[in-house]
Amino acid sequence: MDFQEAIYTQFAQSFEAQQQALESLPPYIEHAAKVIFSSIASGGKIICIGNSTGSHLSQYFSTLMLDRMDRERPGLPAINLSGDGAALLAITNNDSYHDVFSKQITALGNQGDILFVIANRGNTSSIIQAIQAAHERKMNIVALTSPEAKNVSSLTSQDDTEIKVNLLGTARVHECQMTVIHTLVDLLERQLFGYED
């Protein structure tokens, strides 16, 4: 096996995937950044969830919101529901895994808040119930998805924003979603704090 060739292939495929995403995603990213800004400016918060490895990305997004990315600034209101192990275990034990996010959203979510979802698998009942609970609380959804998340796409309303990375392959999808996250945080900082390059 030629390791150098394998390395080159991984980088080349990543560059190609990023270029493809760049051609289709900017309007959706811009809209999501404006929706999240509007929520925060009105006193709302961002509630983050994800399934599978999307849970790690949702935690990363909430961490960047609470702390910062490149510029020093005040923290922004974000909660990650995937990271509270005690709550997840208690809800799973007392109710079911399907309710792990929806029960927390019903308790913590308010009208004007945003549910930030990273879903790369479509038939995940915990994510589906979370979106339904958020709509019941009159929250808007910002969803980062892939082609496999068809059920999530079907649940988003005209008031929601879906940023769908139309690529195949877990690595390529996650790389593009990571870039979307970095871009969203940058756009929020520009809107909230007037940062420029």
UniProtKB/TrEMBL annotation:
InterPro entries: GmhA/DiaA, SIS_dom, SIS_dom_sf, SIS_GmhA/DiaA_subfam. GO terms for biological process: carbohydrate derivative metabolic process. PROSITE patterns: SIS (PS51464). GO terms for molecular function: carbohydrate derivative binding. SUPFAM superfamilies: SIS domain. Residues 36-194 form the SIS domain. PANTHER family: DNAA INITIATOR-ASSOCIATING PROTEIN DIAA, SEDOHEPTULOSE 7-PHOSPHATE ISOMERASE / DNAA INITIATOR-ASSOCIATING FACTOR FOR REPLICATION INITIATION. This is DnaA initiator-associating protein DiaA.
